[in-house]
Amino acid sequence: xxxxxxxxxxxxxxxxxxxxxxxxxxxxxxxxxxxxxxxxxxxxxxxxxxxxxxxxxxxxxxxxxxxxxxxxxxxxxxxxxxxxxxxxxxxxxxxxxxxxxxxxxxxxxxxxxxxxxxxxxxxxxxxxxxxxxxxxxxxxxxxxxxxxxxxxxxxxxxxxxxxxxxxxxxxxxxxxxxxxxxxxxxxxxxxxxxxxxxxxxxxxxxxxxxxxxxxxxxxxxxxxxxxxxxxxxxxxx
Length: 237
Prior knowledge:
Helix 2 runs parallel beside helix 4. By secondary structure, this protein is of the alpha/beta class. 44% of the residues lie in helices and 24% in strands.
């Protein structure tokens, strides 16, 4: 999607009003997505952009402005944020800060709106385990209903721990396996789990979860990613 990025703020137009207009135009696209309950990738992009802009303001007194003809870039080396702006004046750089300070409240307002939608959807999604619960749950099957297309998607999931200098963090990887028509699911989910084990795994039991959705919101942009997050939170408890 990427309606806005750092260049939207650093590479300003000669007329400041044009820069303001372009940012408002980009934010309107995100707002339109949220009005349709489409959270992703809008939420991720807005949070990332907000973090970058806040970091620029936070380090305003510590970073250097390089006057060069290179394309704008960011370098976090040695904890100093360096903006490389094509040979501009101090006044120009002040305009960059002014634009960021003007934009941040608008961006944060959209982020708050997105989280309200996120929380509402999350409250109406439940993750339920199917069949006998195995001791090992870091790998298994995840079933998700796509009501609009009248199908039940089946994915293989795997929970992974990444080690960082600060602390480890968890991630959930998924890969699509197959679809089933919701109208054809006359058999129980336990039987579907049994068939999945025969088809995709040699183990007698594998953790299997089904997502229950009580509201009508977009599947790809909202339900799928929130369901994955809820499953991950369940696994790491």
